[in-house]
Design goal:
alpha+beta, two-stranded antiparallel sheet, two-stranded antiparallel ribbon
């Protein structure tokens, strides 16, 4: 259940209300404060990226492909599609013997306005590298390549790598896997609530 968290006034009239739920917990999960329901399932979305990236380390892929701290960071975060980000993701893919065609995150406009304008004007070609999740996808491909798992189906919830990520999330959330609501993220991989 959500509750009104913020009202925006224009003169004497409430123009809009923003609804949500906020929970403040201590280190043991004890409730300190709340607005709305603390049990409201909320998709982690990009906040799950560090957990989705853990198998890169635990599988040995990071060591096997000699991944740099920049490459690991881009696997565990979002980026805005600037040239430096594309270079890091592209370099990671090259270490795997892959190129941007292996990414299944979609060719979306970059978040960076300057780069997005260049793409819109045709000065730069659309690319999956611009996707803010391309680093996460490249990291998933690294684990699959390292383990010899299929690359073409790495986004599928039944893929061994996605099943491993589900176990990581189960451990992190302290819930059985079957109790964690799942959906599909905008970039095509499972997301967890």
């Amino acid at each position: 259940m959500t509750t009104a968290l913020l009202e925006v006034w224009r003169g004497p009239v409430v123009e809009c209300r923003h609804y949500g739920a906020v929970v403040v917990a201590d280190a043991r999960g004890g409730l300190i404060a709340r607005a709305g329901s603390p049990e409201l399932p909320t998709y982690l979305r990009s906040a799950a990226k560090p957990f989705q990236a853990l198998p890169i380390i635990t599988s040995g892929a990071a060591e096997a492909f000699d991944l740099t701290s920049e490459e690991l960071a881009i696997c565990a975060s979002s980026h805005s599609g600037e040239p430096v980000h594309l270079a890091v993701v592209g370099g990671l893919l090259a270490k795997l013997g892959l190129d941007e065609t292996a990414l299944q995150c979609g060719a979306v406009p970059p978040i960076d306005r300057e780069v997005a304008t260049q793409v819109e004007m045709g000065a730069l070609a659309p690319s999956a590298l611009y996707c803010d999740c391309s680093g996460k996808h490249a990291g998933m491909l690294a684990v699959c390549r390292h383990r010899g798992e299929p690359l073409e189906s790495y986004r599928d919830p039944a893929h061994p790598h996605q099943q491993e990520i589900a176990r990581v999330m189960s451990d992190f959330l302290g819930l059985p896997e079957r109790a964690i609501p799942r959906g599909i993220e905008g970039c095509g991989v499972p997301t967890f609530a």
